[in-house]
Design goal:
Elements (H helix, E strand, L loop, with lengths): L1 E6 H7 L2 E6 L4 H10 L4 E4 L3 H10 L4 E6 L2 E2 L21 E5 L3 H7 L3 E7 L4 H11 L3 E6 L9 H14 L8 H7 L20 H5 L7 E7 L5 E7 L16
Parallel strand pairs: 1-8, 2-7, 2-8, 3-6, 4-6
Antiparallel strand pairs: 4-5, 7-9, 9-10
Helix pairs in contact: 1-4, 5-6
Length: 246
C-alpha cells in the first residue's frame, strides 16, 4: 500500500486511489455528529450559490455552512457541532458547504474513492482502508480555507498514516490533540473570534469517538453525496470508481 500525505486544495487535485479528505476544525467533525444524530445523507457542495439552489429545490432539506467561520446568511445552521447538539436529525437530508472540507471533496476528481476524515473517526478510517487494501492511498489535510496548512489536519493525517503503518499505539494522538488548545485551537477561546465557539473544541478533539466512516458516492442524478458506513457490519459492497459513477 502506497500512502501519501498531501495538503490543501492543490493536494486534493493531486489525490489518487482511495482518498481521505480531512477537515478537523470543523467540517468533518460536524458531519460525524450529523450522522450520529440520525442524518440519512449529506450533500457536500462547493459554492454557497449552489447550496442555496439545492435548498430552494428541496425546502425540507437542512442547509449547513460557513464562510470565514461564520454561518452563511439564510442557512439553517453553521459549521458548528455544538450548535446542533441534541438536534434530532433522524432521516434528514443535509446540504453542507465550507471553506475547506467540502472544497477538498469537489476537487478530488482523480480519486477512485473518497472518504472524509477527522480526529473523531480517524481510527475507523484507517480500519476501513486496511480492509479495502487499496494499492494507493492519498490523505489530504485541507488546512485553513484550503490554502494554508493547519496543524489539526496535519495531525489527523499523520495519525491515520501511523495507524496504516502499524505505529498508531505509539502516536499518542490524544495528547497531541489536547495540545492544540494552545495552538491551532486557540481561536475557539479568542473573544474576538466568536464565529468559533469554545464549545466546539471538545467535539473536534474527541479522538476516535465514532466507529463509522463517511463515504462519498453519487446519487441517481450524479450529484456527490456523503453516506455513513458502519464498520461493525464488516461487509462492503464493491463500488465503482468515482470517475465512473453516475
Amino acid at each position: 500500500m502506497d500512502v501519501r500525505v498531501l495538503e490543501l486544495v492543490d493536494g486534493a487535485r493531486e489525490a489518487r486511489g482511495l482518498t481521505v479528505v480531512i477537515d478537523v476544525f470543523r467540517a468533518f467533525t460536524l458531519e460525524c455528529y450529523l450522522f450520529a444524530q440520525g442524518a440519512e445523507k449529506i450533500y457536500p457542495i462547493g459554492s454557497v450559490d449552489e447550496a442555496r439552489a439545492l435548498k430552494a429545490a428541496h425546502p425540507d432539506w437542512l442547509c449547513f455552512g460557513e464562510r470565514g467561520g461564520w454561518q452563511v446568511e439564510g442557512f439553517d445552521f453553521g459549521n458548528s457541532p455544538s450548535q446542533v447538539a441534541g438536534v434530532d436529525l433522524t432521516g434528514r437530508t443535509c446540504i453542507h458547504t465550507t471553506s475547506a472540507g467540502t472544497q477538498g471533496i469537489v476537487n478530488a476528481t482523480g480519486a477512485d474513492e473518497i472518504v472524509t476524515g477527522s480526529l473523531a473517526n480517524a481510527r475507523a478510517v484507517a480500519t476501513y482502508i486496511r480492509r479495502r487494501d487499496p494499492r494507493e492511498v492519498s490523505i489530504v489535510a485541507m488546512g485553513t480555507s484550503g490554502v494554508t496548512s493547519a496543524d489539526e489536519d496535519v495531525l489527523c493525517a499523520r495519525y491515520i498514516e501511523a495507524l496504516l503503518k502499524g505505529q498508531g499505539d505509539d502516536f499518542d494522538v490524544a495528547a497531541k490533540a489536547a495540545a492544540l488548545r494552545d495552538g491551532a485551537g486557540a481561536k475557539f477561546f479568542d473573544p474576538e473570534q466568536p464565529q468559533y465557539p469554545a464549545a466546539d473544541f471538545p467535539y473536534c478533539v474527541d479522538c476516535d469517538r465514532f466507529d463509522f466512516v463517511i463515504r462519498v458516492g453519487k446519487d441517481a442524478d450524479g450529484r456527490l453525496v456523503n453516506t455513513r458506513l458502519d464498520l461493525q457490519r464488516r461487509t462492503y459492497v464493491c463500488i465503482r470508481s468515482l470517475r465512473c459513477l453516475g
